[in-house]
Amino acid sequence: MNIRPAEDKDRPIIADIHARSWQENYRDYLSDDLLDNRLSEMMADRWANMDIGAQDIVLVAEDDQVQGFVAVWDDEMPYIDNLHVSSDCRSKGIGRKLLAAAARAAKANGRKTIWLHVVVGNDRARNLYTRLGGVPDGVEDKDLYGTMVPNERILWRDINILAEQSN
């Protein structure tokens, strides 16, 4: 498996993986109409038009094809906005590798901490983040395309904890 910076040609597959992940994992939180009828087009548009800054980090994991991606928006405290892995590629360490690579890139940008939100009830993802050293840091509602969904903030106060995750 190779982890590399995303290229413009990757945007459609990133959008597809993103939409399918939400369709599989957010059924209890978002409407069937959104997930089944509108989300794929919304994600395609979002990723086609996404302004990715020079310090932002978007990485893909690929073997013969893209299997997952991570997107981190750079700020004083970088925000991991997305981590999604194709359902047939889960539980193979891809998410962990993507997160560690993103943390190393953020560290190279001079950042010392990193954080993300996880939907409350998404225990599989939350367990991954806490196993990788993330610390729960409160719950807040987040607007997901017009639906307020409780999200738990997970924080790595020391980015090295995440950056140093091994295979």
Automatic annotation (TrEMBL):
Keywords: Acyltransferase, Transferase. InterPro entries: Acyl_CoA_acyltransferase, GNAT_dom, YpeA/RimI_acetyltransf. CDD domains: NAT_SF (cd04301). It holds the Pfam family Acetyltransf_1. The keyword Transferase applies. PROSITE patterns: GNAT (PS51186). Coiled coil: none annotated. Residues 1-156 form the N-acetyltransferase domain. PANTHER family: ACETYLTRANSFERASE, N-ACETYLTRANSFERASE DOMAIN-CONTAINING PROTEIN. This is N-acetyltransferase domain-containing protein. It comes from Parasphingorhabdus litoris.
